Amino acid sequence: MIKDSLRAQVIETPSWAYGNSGTRFKVFAQRGVPRDPFEKLADAAQVHAFTGVAPQVALHIPWDRVDDYAALAAHASGLGVRIGAINSNVFQDDDYMLGSVTHPDARVRAKALAHLLDCVDIMDATGSDTLKLWFSDGINYPGQDDIRARQDRLAEALGRVYERLGDNQRFLLEYKLFEPAFYATDVPDWGTAYAHCLKLGPKAQVVVDTGHHAPGTNIEFIVAFLLREGKLGGFDFNSRFYADDDLMAGAADPFQLFRIMVEVIGGGGFTEDVAFMLDQCHNIEPKIAGQIRSVMNVQEATAKALLVDREALAVAQAAGDVLGANAVVMDAYNTDVRPLLAEVRTDLGLDPDPMAAYARSGYFEKIAADRVGGAQAGWGA
Ligand code: AOS
Ligand code: ZN
Ligand code: ZN
Predict the structure, then answer these.
(1) Dihedral (C-alpha) 242, 297, 314, 209: value to the nearest 10 degrees?
(2) Secondary structure (3-state) at 171
(3) Measured distance CA(222)–CA(107) in Å, rounded
(4) What band does 379 get if pLDDT is binned at 50, 70 and 90?
(5) What are the domain boundaries of the chain?
(6) Signal sequence: where (predicted)?
C-alpha cells in the first residue's frame, strides 16, 4: 500500500546542513546555528519530529569530531534519531593539495588512508553501517600526474578500507565530474566508481549525488543500471541549476527527482539498502526549515512515483503504445499528492503541515536566543 511505503521511508539529513555554509565568496552567518555536533543532532531531531521520516543523521569527520562517539550516538538516541553515514574528509588539509589517496607521495596517501580507517572506527563506536567516500582528488593540467598510476593508488586505498569493514558495514563511493580538480578527477563518473566497487565485492556500492553530473545527464538511467547490478548504495539528494549547487532537493527540477524515484521503485530499490540522503547547504534560507522542505520534496516525488500504475504501464509498453505508456507516467507526476502526504502525517500522529507546525513551535526563536557564536558547517571553514 502506498501509504505504508511513505510511512516507512527513511530520509537521512546531513549534520553540515545545520551549520553555516556559503560559497567561496561569502559565508553568511545565521542566528541560532549549532555550536557543536550535539546541537546539530538536536536540530536534525526537529526535522524528524515534524516529518516523521528523517530519523537518521549523517556525520562528517572532522567537522563533527568529538571525544566520545558512543556518547554522541547515545545523545542522538535520546533525541529520537540515530547516526547515519559517516562522511570522510580527505580534502581540507594542506597535505592534500595534490590529492589524498591518489597523491604521488606515499606519506600523504598513508595519512589519508589512516583517516578513512579512523572513520570505520567511528562507525563501530556510533553503530553506523555506512561509510561515504568522496575524493576531491584529481589534476588540473594535462601531464600533471599519471592518470593510470592514480587509479592504481585509488584501488589500493579502497581495498584497504574494504578489508577493514565489519560484516554489517559497507562503503559508498561517490563520484563527481569536476571540482575542485578541473582537468581530470580521479572518480569522475559512475562507471569509474562502479568498476572499483565491482572488483571489491558486495560491501562496496556507488552513491549518486544528483548534483555531480554534466548538464543533461540522464541520472535515472544510471539509477536503473546500478540497481540492476546491485550496486546502487544510495543518493546524495540536492538540486542544481548549473553545477554542484547543493540547493534543496526537488527545488530546481522536481520532475527529475520523480523520474529518479520511478526507477528506484521500479528496480526494487525502495528498501533500507538504498539510502536516501540529503547533501545540501542552506546558504541563505533558514536551515531547519530548509531541511523540512527538502524532506517533503523527496516525499512528494516518492509518492508520485509510487502512484505510477505499473500494470497499465506494462500493458502499454508491451503493446508498443508510446503515448499511452508516457501518459501513465505523466498522470502520476501530475497528481497532487499533498493531501495523501497530509493523511500519512496525520496517521503518524503528526501535524499535516510540517512547515507551519515547525514555525509555530518556537524552536527557532529559542535557539536564536540561546546559541551565540554558532559554528560553520565546514564548507566555509
Ligand atoms: C562533495 O561535493 C560531495 O557532494 C560530498 O558528498 C559532500 O558534500 C561532502 O562529503 C560533505 O560531507
Ligand atoms: Zn555528495
Ligand atoms: Zn557535492
Answers:
(1) 40
(2) strand
(3) 36
(4) low
(5) 2-370
(6) none
The three three-digit cell numbers of residue 174, written as one number = 561517490
Distances (CA, A) of 226 to 79, 197, 212, 222, 263: 35, 11, 16, 6, 10
- Give 63-93 pLDDT, tens digit per residue: 999 999 999 999 999 999 999 999 999 999 9
60 in ligand 1 pocket by Cβ < 6 Å?
Answer: yes
Evaluate: CB of 30 within 6 angstroms of ligand 1. Answer: no
**Residue-wise burial string across 120-138, b where 16 or more C-beta atoms lie within 10 A, e elsewhere:** bebbebbebbbbbbbbbbb
Question: Which residues are bridge partners to 205 per DSSP?
Answer: 172
Distance CA 60, CA 70 (A): 15
Residue type, 62: P
ipTM, 2 decimals? 0.96
> 2-370: CATH homologous superfamily?
Divalent-metal-dependent TIM barrel enzymes (3.20.20.150)
Residue 281 CA: which ligand is closest? 1
Nearest CA to ligand 1 atom 6: 134
Number of residues that make up the chain: 381
Taking the centre of ligand 3 as the mean of its atom positions, its distance from the CA of residue 53, in whole angstroms, is: 23
